[in-house]
Design brief:
The chain has three domains: 187 residues, no CATH class; 95 residues, no CATH class; 68 residues, no CATH class. 34% of the residues lie in helices and 18% in strands. The chain contains 15 helices and 20 strands. Helix 2 crosses helix 11 and helix 11 packs antiparallel against helix 15.
Length: 435
């Protein structure tokens, strides 16, 4: 993008360039960063909402328990080997079983010793947002012999788990033992708390982070303040300049507007004609400029075989001279070529008003005390700005903040847009219209 701006010499509205970046997800990255507050008890900065990363697949989580449960579920075979062992079926005669009315899972007879535990476990894993009594009312009693036999067969075996990737293999009898073993042995190595993290583009996120991501992207697409700030810093490091047009729209270009006084400066006759033409023809572009100052010769009347259109004639020496002078004027900031192709000369800055001399202070008067936190011996001068106001690179962030909407209360975790990717794709093939 910077190369395109340098080659074309055109001035692009910074926010429209940022809008081009936001059009495709591959042109930007999104990261999450925690917000911290000062804990007076420990005298340390503490995260309001901590973030945890599972290093096994670089997924992001809001608490350590959820990250550990994900790691155990998604990478179970990396740490444990499962063996199915036969056991005695439950004693007694069973004529009915309870079945979940929404998933179809068999919970066993209501008077079976593991019924309540399995009922609450299924509710916690699948329907935790539903009231337990309401979920319980959805359970149905089935007296079908085939379904009863299916449940009997399902409890006629048990699972054993062998711990892997440990110095000595260990046998575990239940998932509760597996979770406790994973938390003690593997969790400290693979689950880490972080202050900031940039997940992969297709990474699965918790529902709360997905909502935060969607809201933040919607805001950035409507008003790309963070992308524009990142672009301004990157463009500045590449030698591009910034200026404000009409005191509102920040543009990025190869040079800042710099007025050229053709009356008191030694310039070529062609340069004077270019300046005069742009000043007297509002909204002109380089094509009209060249045709006015160096008209193309009349096309030859030779017949063209097959009725094909004649090839475009090359530029004349006079036209090339006009373009060379225009190129110099643009790269010196004397002429601005906007993204729409419109040409405009840099305006002459308004003179600063002469300061009014201050009346001498009376000897018996004590000097006024300075305002709290105000620097001493500092005066402020305000001068009227020209139609095209130049701004320093360091002031770009402040200029963008002036255009930003009122700030909202910050969330516990904020989404941070990183520097956009700079590639050939991001070059604005169709230059945005000047604001």
């Amino acid at each position: 993008m910077a190369r395109q701006i340098k080659l074309s010499g055109r001035a692009y509205p910074l926010f429209e360039v940022a809008g081009l970046v936001m059009q495709k997800p591959e042109r930007y990255t999104v990261g999450f960063k925690v917000i911290k507050h000062r804990d007076e008890a420990s005298k340390k900065d503490v995260a309001v909402q901590p973030l945890f990363v599972c290093n096994l697949d670089d997924t992001l989580w809001l608490n350590e328990e959820a990250a550990a449960e994900h790691a155990l579920k998604a990478h179970f075979e990396t740490f444990y080997q499962t063996e199915k062992m036969p056991c005695d079926p439950p004693k007694g005669v069973w004529t009915l079983v309870a079945q979940c009315g929404m998933t179809g899972d068999l919970l066993g007879p209501p008077n079976f010793h593991g019924y309540q535990e399995k009922l609450r476990k299924l509710h916690a894993e699948r329907f935790s947002r539903m009231n337990f009594d309401m979920y319980k009312s959805r359970v149905k009693i089935v007296k079908d012999e085939a379904i009863v036999k299916q449940w009997t067969d399902s409890v006629s075996f048990r699972f054993e788990y062998t711990a892997l990737n440990v110095p000595e293999p260990k046998m575990l009898q239940s998932m509760e033992e597996v979770r406790a073993h994973f938390a003690e042995v593997h969790q400290p190595s693979f689950i880490k708390q972080v202050d900031s993290f940039t997940p992969k583009a297709d990474a699965k996120l918790p529902a709360a982070l997905q909502t935060l991501l969607r809201v933040s992207l919607d805001k950035e697409k409507r008003f790309p303040i963070r992308i524009a700030t990142a672009l301004s810093n990157t463009f500045a490091s590449m030698g591009l300049q910034f200026f404000k047009r009409d005191k509102t729209v920040v543009h990025v270009a190869v040079a800042r507007p710099h007025h050229l006084d053709t009356e008191n400066s030694v310039v070529s006759e062609t340069t004077k004609k270019i300046i005069d033409h742009i000043n007297t023809n509002l909204g002109t572009n380089r094509k009209r400029l060249v045709e006015t100052l160096a008209p193309s010769p009349a096309p030859a009347e030779a017949a063209v075989e097959g009725g094909a259109a004649p090839a475009p004639s090359p530029l004349t020496l006079e036209q090339q001279a006009v373009l060379n002078d225009l190129h110099w004027l643009i790269h010196q900031g004397h002429v601005i070529e906007f993204a729409s192709g419109m040409l405009e000369t840099a305006k002459k800055p308004a003179p600063r008003p002469t300061p009014t001399p201050k009346a001498p202070k009376k000897a018996d008067k004590q000097p006024a005390a300075p305002e709290p936190n105000a620097p001493e011996a500092v005066t402020a001068e305000v001068a009227p700005a020209s139609a095209t106001e130049t701004v320093a690179v360091d002031d770009v962030a402040a200029s963008l903040a002036e255009e930003a909407p009122a700030a909202e209360e910050a969330p516990a975790v904020e989404v941070e847009a990183e520097h956009p990717a700079v590639s050939g794709e991001t070059t604005p093939e169709n230059p945005p219209q000047a604001a």
